[in-house]
Design goal:
Distance between the termini: 76 Å
Number of domains: 1
Strand content: 15-25%
Strand order of the largest sheet: 1-2-3-4-5-6-7
CATH superfamily: Ribonuclease Z/Hydroxyacylglutathione hydrolase-like
CATH topology: Metallo-beta-lactamase, Chain A
CATH class: Alpha Beta
């Protein structure tokens, strides 16, 4: 009996001591850029919040990150993987918007390297050290442990050029509500890589709960005017020049069909039955997110007048 109890105690202890294993493998984008591409899922205990993308750029003597992942432990394991490629300090992290799956991991880098955090002012405005965001509520203790809210050191309100070692980064605010109320693009001219964050997703349906159909389409127009070879989405595995195609199609059709439904006097109670976006029914999270997107689009577009 004592042996059984001892074994159970050890097993119980192991769940609290051992960290969530994210099984990470970085994807090489070009000569100095690697990304960790999250699962096409909502955050769950099983995925530990690894359901968004974040990237490392080797600037020579440092790493600059675009977003930082959802937890301290995810960030720690990502850095361990990148150290197998080259062990460098993380000097700077650019946080593209306020959704917590993209920036809670910054707590690891702040502790280990005192990395400078640059990003959306909404992180500082909407969160403090006592905030319990989605990840704190949804993830297991072994995934969320050591994670904390870290304030942004520099808020971005206008276009900024940042140079780290010999690599230039252009940080570009969208300037209007798109995926969220305050989204940033990051562009690296030397390798023509554009980090679009959650303005672009592929392989899954987007969540537009904090966004705008019109703003998303304006952001797509901004992207299409830029010269890039790689486009890194906030969620999704396609990092090619074509990574934007699904987002453009989805929001173009969503706007068109909701406006047609308004013209036909379809009411709010029936809009999700009338506009189904069935071209995307095989994409991840269609059942969970599409109807809400349609309903929110109706609320936005019911009295819309073309600009």
């Amino acid at each position: 009996m004592r042996k059984i109890i001892s074994t159970m105690a050890i097993l119980g202890l192991s769940t609290s001591v051992f960290a969530h294993d994210y099984k990470l493998e970085p994807k090489k984008i070009n000569d100095n850029t690697w990304c960790f591409l999250g699962k096409l899922e909502a955050p769950t205990k099983n995925n530990g919040g690894f359901m968004s993308n974040h990237c490392y750029v080797n600037t020579g003597k440092n790493y600059v990150l675009i977003d930082a992942g959802a937890t301290y432990e995810l960030a720690k394991q990502a850095y361990e993987k990148m150290s197998e490629i080259k062990k460098l300090p993380v000097s700077t992290i650019i946080l593209t918007h306020e959704h917590d799956d993209h920036w809670l991991g910054a707590s690891f880098y702040k502790k280990e390297f005192n990395s400078k955090l640059i990003g959306s002012s909404l992180i500082n405005k909407n969160y403090n050290e006592n905030s319990k965001t989605r990840m704190f509520k949804m993830l297991s203790e072994d995934a969320i442990k050591n994670t904390s809210i870290i304030k942004v050191d520099e808020e971005i309100k206008e276009v900024k050029t940042l140079k780290v070692d010999e690599v230039e980064f252009q940080i570009i605010p969208i300037g209007r509500k798109a995926h969220s109320s305050d989204d940033l693009f990051v562009y690296v001219p030397s390798n023509k890589t554009l980090f679009a964050s959650d303005v672009v997703m592929n392989g899954r349906i987007t969540s537009n709960r904090d966004g705008s159909v019109i703003g998303q389409l304006k952001a797509v127009e901004m992207i299409e005017k830029m010269d890039y070879n790689n486009l890194i989405p906030g969620h999704g595995f396609d990092t090619s020049k074509n990574a934007i195609n699904e987002t453009k199609q989805y929001f173009t059709l969503l706007k068109q069909r909701v406006l047609e439904a308004v013209e036909e006097e379809v009411g709010a109670a029936n809009i999700t039955k009338h506009v189904k976006m069935e071209e995307f029914k095989d994409k991840a999270l269609y059942e969970e997110l599409n109807s809400r997107n349609v309903f929110d689009a109706y609320s936005e577009l019911e009295f819309y007048e073309e600009e």
